[in-house]
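Known limitations

Structure tokens in this collection are predictions and should be treated as such. Users comparing against experimental data should check residue numbering before alignment. To illustrate the layout, the record for NCS2 family permease is reproduced below. The input appears on top and the generated tokens appear beneath it.
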Amino acid sequence: MAFIARYFHFDELKTTHRRELIAGITTFVSMAYILFVNPTVLGAAGMDKGAVFTATGVSAAVATIFMGLVAKYPIAIAPGLGVNAFFAYSVVIGMKIPWQTAMAGVLVAALIFLLLTFFRIREKIINLIPQDLKVAIAAGIGLFIAFIGLHDAGLIVANPSTMVSLGSLTSDKSLLAIFGIIVTFILMARKTPAAIFIGMILTATVGVLFGLIELPKQFISAAPSLAPTFGQSIKHLTDINTFQLATVVLTFLIVTFFDTAGTMIGLATQAGFMKNGEMPRAGKALMADAVGMTVGAVIGTSPTSAFVESSSGIAVGGRSGLTSVYTGLLFIFALLFSPLLSVVTPQVTAPALVVVGVLMAENLRDVNWQDFAIAAPAFLIVIGMPLTYSISDGIALGFILYPMTMIATKRGKDVPVMMYILAAIFLIFLFLVAH
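Generated tokens:
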């Protein structure tokens, strides 16, 4: 125990083994849904759902444990939402590209990521992002995940007349989510230790007692075989031989790069890790993502990304890599006890996401709102993430505008050259690739 405390710098981070364990469990419970959502999405592309389930858990475990042991951050990594939908619906179904070939594209993007990370190019790009835009990214992610939580709970729904509107407040599932949100808010206001985790447990318990959440019929289940998807990306590498497929690889690169970079900046800001506007050990953290993406592509799942739900573990006190180690180990155990995860419904996770949104919105105070040239791109980042339902799209909007407003106010020389390059890349991405 003493060695663990020294290795993860417990004294410096003012944390404890118990706190890290609770944080690891909280993060895992908050993002466990990906084990079920990812197979459903990729299954639409014709992939074997059982194999994708196992690939999702294994890639998440490998990347997250790497993050904990090497980078020592309480940040979890797993196949990302959004990019998995792009893989299934845009690439495979829309472009009629076989999923095996699309997975080869993911592997190529992952290998490029490894090179960019090894030569510290990704780290340099992150450190060159202006501080105001970094805190805007953190705040935007807060709004984004709060929106996800409210939507998943059925409290915010689509409306053809007003785009979105308030959902039913009288349905059983909505009432369960409302109960969870109120209870968690009260616990947070009273500064109760592990408030978010306790709120999730209470919500799940009430759901089971009132028959809103069905208990699993069995508690242990062998992990499905990886055979249907394992190695398919390697076998089909030679299929990446057209401009269309090169565009697919580029899209995987851009979306995953900035989803992960933006999320890591936001989480590091929330946890207080940023020093002089830079993220310490950023290279090691990004390597964890690159490793996870490579492993995932080989065994059969869409690109991995740092998960915004890691903020729930940070919110309950997780500050060291031990949080990620516990989260990663739970992903491995989850492969054997997968039926138990069925009680973690969107109504159970919604309160955690909403509360974390409140906590991350605190970063808005650090944006220089008095300087419109900075405030405008920061605002587009913040509002763009929930409205486009994409972290990378929100970042793109702000990054494109930032050089323009700075030039307009005769401060173009203050903008790092990399920001001009990123603005150009995002322009090409938004107009020629993404849409």
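For this record: The CA atoms of residues 185 and 355 lie 7 Å apart. The first helix runs from residue 2 to 7. Please report discrepancies through the issue tracker.
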